[in-house]
């Protein structure tokens, strides 16, 4: 089901949490809401869910073309997973997953046997077969989040909302779950929105990345497009490491070519102030010999650093990419 948000405003007292926000989430897409703390991501998600209401006015929120402003949360066909989605500790995994179905009004509630069957199907879907009788305390953090996801899916939602679903997990588990979620999404094709403040997570997972800042959407689009052509300096800096050169030129560390100082095509020379090699990659800091003495971050391969026999203190040459359209970057 597609979700369309138009000109939404939300204030808490005198504080503006969403300022004229418009967004289209196509049916079946995986959209990331990315932004720093306090930018309005969770508020937007809660308004979509019906847990919070936008200020009255021209703002519209539509599911598959239908205005849902007056539809209560329980009737929006929305499933949620939160960062600290407390599973019920006294219930088994199966009881937790079936909970949403078991508490439905009698007219909507499926028979017990169907709840059981659906629960087992969902467990299979989130690859936790056989764990139905465990308690949450007997699961790992990653498994618990998958149970939370199965619980959200039990009501057969048309939209899935995830608020920092992996936020409380350690980096390794987080990465695994992230890949798993992408695969899972590709299999079931449910319209999904997830909140994150981790740019790598957003870029790796999403079809559409929505960058939020100060209650507004700063830019949205496919991950590669946002990364390659940020419209503002904020988006440039938020999406990954970047060098800010004079004349408000922004250059990513991997766009710079490392050369010998006397080689042809060198734009500037500098001293290697830092050199760090890990696996096949190398990260260098280069302090220019002329101009502003601001260290430039350069990423190269280990092979190249070894071939050039580089060491800290050496003078190297840097070749910069051709300047992009200047209008691309707006400095606020
Ligand atoms: N119920 C509320 N009452 C008052 N202010 C609120 C309420 N909910 C949110 N806010 C404020 O609105 C702003 C946006 O909050 P929101 O939770 O949407 O941000 P966020 O981008 O999700 O941040 P985080 O990444 O920290 O969760 C914050 O400054 C927050 O303090």
Mean pLDDT: 90
What fraction, in percent, of the residue positions are helical? Answer: 25-40%
**Order of strands across the biggest sheet?**
6-7-8-3-9-10
Say which molecules are bound, naming each kind only once. Answer: adenosine-5'-triphosphate
Notes on the protein architecture:
This protein is an alpha+beta fold and 332 residues long. The chain has two domains: 3-235, 3-Layer(aba) Sandwich (Rossmann fold); 247-318, RNA polymerase II/Efflux pump adaptor protein, barrel-sandwich hybrid domain (OB fold (Dihydrolipoamide Acetyltransferase, E2P)), CATH 2.40.50. Helix content is 27%, strand content 30%. The chain contains nine helices and 17 strands. It has helices at 41-49, 93-102, 112-125, 141-153, 171-188, 199-205, 223-228, 233-238, 302-307, and strands at 3-12, 15-25, 30-34, 60-63, 66-67, 78-82, 159-163, 191-196, 208-213, 216-221, 243-245, 249-251, 257-260, 268-278, 281-288, 296-301, 315-319. The chain starts with a strand and ends in a 13-residue tail after the last strand. The site of adenosine-5'-triphosphate has 12 residues, from strand 2 and helix 1.
Topology:
Blueprint: E1 3-12, E2 15-25, E3 30-34, H1 41-49, E4 60-63, E5 66-67, E6 78-82, H2 93-102, H3 112-125, H4 141-153, E7 159-163, H5 171-188, E8 191-196, H6 199-205, E9 208-213, E10 216-221, H7 223-228, H8 233-238, E11 243-245, E12 249-251, E13 257-260, E14 268-278, E15 281-288, E16 296-301, H9 302-307, E17 315-319
Adenosine-5'-triphosphate is lined by residues 12, 15, 17, 35, 37-43, 197.
Domain ABC transporter: 3-239
GO molecular function: ATP binding
Pfam families: ABC_tran
